[in-house]
Amino acid sequence: MKLPKKIQEFLTLIDVKIDGNRPWDFKVNNPKVFDRFLAEGTLGVGESYMDKWWDVDKLDEFIYRVKKQKLDKKLITLGLVAHVIKSKVVNLQTKSKSKKVAKQHYDIGNKFYENMLDKRMQYTCAYWKNAKTLDQAQEHKLDLICKKLQLKRGDTILELGGGWGGFAKYAAEKYGCNVTSYNISEEQVKYARNLCKGLPVKIILDDYRHAKGTFDKVVAIGICEHIGYKNYRNFMKLANRCLKKHGLFLLHTIAQDTSTTTTDPWIAKYIFPNGMLPSFKQLSVAAEGYFVLEDWHNFSADYDKTLMAWYANFNKNWPKFKEQYGERFYRMWSFYLLSCAGFFRAREGQLYQIVFSKEGLPGGYVSIR
After folding, report:
1. pLDDT over 50 (residue 157)
2. Among 38, 144, 146, 284, which residue carries the largest CB count within 10 Å?
3. What's the rounded Cα separation, in Å, for the pair 304 and 165?
């Protein structure tokens, strides 16, 4: 088939052949697919995959090659320009708008996530040092966070964005801490309250911006990606206000190397509405004047491994959900997990754990790995 010149240049650059026999080679099911790529950019790439216009045996490897050469940045369309302008003018992460991601992504069904995640229902990057299974790696992540926060029995912890309650339960059971956790996902809150029953854990169905009181420790695991660049500074201000004088604040977040005010259009439409990845510069500027930086840890390669483990679980358990969700959802979710794995494999995505103190810990802070 005759390819548009730009597409041929792109495929040559990333060493991908049409209907080749390597796992990352591209299989065309609809001859109009490349016109769609050029007209719709990355949104068209994802949607055309959902529509079965193309296939590839190893989607993660194909996306890795695309990301490594930054080809997605070259597929700029008018739709993306409009998306950028909108993000500049409108605060996409107000209290009301932030509930959209809870409804669209996190409330699709706890049973679905139970069949994809580990036994502690951790939906953030695992820590694979000395771990052989996803369960082990996620427990290592939780313990790493607790050790970095220097938790001790009786500590009070404010958790901003609590997920299914895995961290709260772990900190309460293993370290004897009292945890107050804020979350706007009704499904997650229901699950977390049941999980943490009988423990010194308070799960609050409310926006993190309504957090009250002061705590020995503050932790934010996987919420910063939903805050938005217009709110980073106020987020740091709130964490500072809620942290006691000699306390510690740990931020666990996906990030990228360049500052941006928008996100990938396909991810925004289908996976994380109004989501946005911060850069190290944006985080540093937001924290300036509120915190002393004690430790900055990047283990982004572990997210590639985590996503592939999630995909393996999702794929294995898909027959249980096939009738409920349908094939288009299957292709959408596969594209989400595998393209994100390629994103981290290409080192475009970073995974930061950052430890802050208010005024600098007396005697200094010892980094934990």
Report:
1. yes
2. 146
3. 24
Give the pLDDT confidence score for residue 80 in this predicted structure.
Answer: 44
Nearest to residue 285, comparing CAs of 237, 218, 221, 220? 237
Domain spans, the chain? 5-76, 91-315+348-357
Residue with tokens 């500072």: 240
pLDDT at residue 83 in the model = 45
Reference 26, options 35, 15, 36; nearest CA is 15
pLDDT at residue 79, as a whole number: 47
359: phi then psi, degrees, rounded to nearest 5: -130, 10
Q: How far apart are the first and last CA of the chain?
A: 52
| CATH topology for the 91-315+348-357 domain | Rossmann fold (3.40.50)
Amino acid present at 137: A
Closest CA to 77 of 271, 267, 309, 265: 265
Q: Are 42 and 265 in contact (CB under 8 A)?
A: yes
pLDDT value, residue 274: 86
Q: Quick one: what percent of the chain has pLDDT higher than 90?
A: 85
Q: At 224, list the tokens.
A: 């910063």
Give phi and psi for 272, each to the nearest 5. -125, 85
- Given the residues 177, 196, 224, 340, select the one marked as catalytic: 340
Cβ atoms 236, 286 nearer than 8 A: yes
Question: What gap in Å lies between CA 339 and CA 268, rounded to an integer?
Answer: 14
What confidence tens digit (pLDDT) does each residue in 86-134 have?
A: 445 556 556 665 555 556 566 688 999 999 999 999 999 999 999 999 9
Taking alpha carbons only, the member of 200, 205, 192 closest to residue 165 is 192
**Residue 219 near residue 162 (C-beta atoms within 8 A):** no
Q: What percent of the chain stands above pLDDT 70?
A: 91
Q: Which of 302, 310, 304 is nearest to 344 (CA)?
A: 304
Q: Give the β-pairing of 156-160 and 178-183.
A: parallel
Q: Partners of 251 in the beta sheet?
A: 220, 354
pTM: 0.91
At 184, is the secondary structure helix, strand, or coil?
coil
Both tokens of residue 190? Answer: 């229901």
* Alpha-carbon Rg for the chain in angstroms: 21
